[in-house]
């Protein structure tokens, strides 16, 4: 039987054309009023997934 892609993971992780796994930083969804502008700017953008997690995430994405 075929493996199914983990639907929660496919919403959170993007795969680049070179094969890198990219994710959003945590902490920019709510309670932003008390966080400094410096902190919210630092949380912007995407970062590469940690190498320790990438093997497991690739399996969850079916790559």
Automatic annotation (TrEMBL):
Keywords: Ribonucleoprotein, Ribosomal protein. It comes from the Bacteria. Residues 1-14 have a biased composition (Basic residues). SUPFAM superfamilies: L35p-like. Residues 1-51 are annotated as: Disordered. Coiled coil: none annotated. Pfam families: Ribosomal_L35p (PF01632). GO terms for cellular component: ribosome. Residues 33-45 have a biased composition (Basic and acidic residues). PANTHER family: 54S RIBOSOMAL PROTEIN BL35M, LARGE RIBOSOMAL SUBUNIT PROTEIN BL35M. Belongs to the bacterial ribosomal protein bL35 family. HAMAP family: Ribosomal_bL35. This is Large ribosomal subunit protein bL35.
